[in-house]
Amino acid sequence: MSTRSQIEKELLRSVAGLSYIKPDMIPNIDLYMDQVTTFMNEHLSASKRFDDDKILTKTMINNYTKGRILPPPEKKKYSREHMLLLIFVYYFKSILSISDMKELLNPITDKYFGKDEINMEYIYEEVFDEVRGTFHTIAKDIDNKFKKSEESFMDVPEDEREMLQHFSLICMLSFEIYVKELLINKLIDIDSKKYREKGEKEKENENDSQP
To answer: Which tens digit of pLDDT belongs to each residue from 79-123?
Structure first.
């Protein structure tokens, strides 16, 4: 097996190894901070780049609470809905700023956190049901990009070719991330504007209804 084939298999294996925390894996009791960080580190460790990388620390969680991204715990304990929200935060934090996460999540938590019918567990299950179906598509797309990169720089000496082909692959993946981040930012801006305008309209109506 060639070195390139080994690298490709390792990349695809790392994608296939990714998973998500299913709601029934989360304890049905409220957890203290240490229990929260331990749970996250145990169940999301496959996504770490280095062994000493931290998934979520006490400082991070406290900052998310202070920044109004995460609702405050009840008597220092975090509910299942806190846990589900923290999983979203974990995936968002590598691509979104604190302010963007706040703009994205505040309308969700304001309307659905702690509610009975449409709540965070319902939203989480709906979202990750869709995400689960994309793993095969992502793996196939990476495979196609890898093959395309292997077709580049064929006129370069073999001892230099692999590095340039990896550079080509990184550029293709990075441009795709760049485009998707632009789309994400645009969607956040659109929805946060609508949310603010709705709040302002409700305040105006409240003021108009007062004697």
So the answer is: 999 999 999 999 999 899 999 999 999 999 999 998 888 899 999
Q: What is the DSSP string of 35-62?
A: HHHHHHHHHSGGG-SSTT--SS-HHHHH
In whole angstroms, give the CA distance from residue 94 to residue 91: 7
Separation CA 40–CA 45 (nearest Å):
8
- Whether this prediction's pTM lies above 0.85 is answered by no
Q: How far apart are CA 103 and CA 69, in angstroms?
A: 9
163: Cβ–Cβ under 8 A, 6 or more apart, which residues?
none
Is the Cβ–Cβ distance between 84 and 40 less than 8 Å? no
How far apart CA 30 and CA 190 sit, in angstroms, is 35
Contact 139, 16 (CB under 8 A): yes
